[in-house]
Amino acid sequence: MRLEGRKALVTGGAGGIGAATVARLAAEGAEVWVGDVDLAGAERVAGEAAGHAVELDVTSLESVKAAVTAMGAPDILVNNAGTDEFGFFTYTTPEQWQRLVAINLMGVFNCTHAVLPAMQEAGYGRIVTISSEAGRVGSKGSAVYSATKGGVVAFMKAIARESARYGITANSIAPGPIETPLLMGAKEFGEIGEKVIETMKGATQMKRLGQPDEVAAAVAFLASDDATYVTGETLGVSGGLGMV
Ligand SMILES: NC(=O)c1ccc[n+]([C@@H]2O[C@H](COP(=O)([O-])OP(=O)(O)OC[C@H]3O[C@@H](n4cnc5c(N)ncnc54)[C@H](O)[C@@H]3O)[C@@H](O)[C@H]2O)c1
Q1: Which of 41, 59, 189, 220 has its CA 20 to 30 A from that of 26?
Q2: What's the pTM?
Q3: How far is CA 138 from CA 48, 99, 145, 177, 180, in A?
Q4: Does residue 108's CB lie within 6 angstroms of at least one atom of ligand 1?
Q5: Average pLDDT in the 130-150 region?
């Protein structure tokens, strides 16, 4: 029960990694708010974890602020909402780039901006952003996604530097291929999608996909007081895919 007495907001909480994170934070004693554009999904996940659902679109600062007002200031923010649109870069469009930047990068700015002032005032805060190994090594077929995920790592480091004096830590997690609707959606592309998943699996040392629970465990660690001296870090949860 490392998170007893803490209030957490998990964005994209209706999805694969988000739902596992909600369950894990709740099991560790946190009051968890599930924020998602998919309100029905958020309500389902919140119901299973005795948490709360709130409709939230990370691309809109207004929407995020309204959600934070509704729930009250969180002690823990998990920037988890994210998406990808698979395609080799030359075949992608500026509209696709903008969609990915709006959710994966601006979304993290919006949520962090909405919660930081109250964390500073409270003298306590934990911000955990779900990046990706793609942000460290670059992923074929996900060039813009990789750029946004690299961007949030740098952003977390800067926030860690600005926020240490307020008792706030800011860290990133870099998952490898995790078995969620986002990754398995690659199968829609048929043979090439299957090949991408197999290639990612092969790039891990463990030669298997990760499970959402394995990412959630790392989130719980970084959100807890077991990680009081950890800030500005990027923790790979990728079966050794990103090791240097
Ligand atoms: N699955 C993987 O292999 C993998 C690997 C590395 C990183 N990640 C990252 O983990 C995070 C979670 O991914 P997942 O695999 O669980 O995906 P998922 O598709 O299962 O879940 C994503 C969730 O985000 C929500 N969402 C999308 N746009 C939103 C918006 N504008 N505002 C609020 N919510 C929004 C969706 O409704 C969904 O519930 C993402 O940031 C993703 O980039 C995933």
Answers
A1: 59
A2: 0.98
A3: 35, 19, 9, 13, 20
A4: no
A5: 96
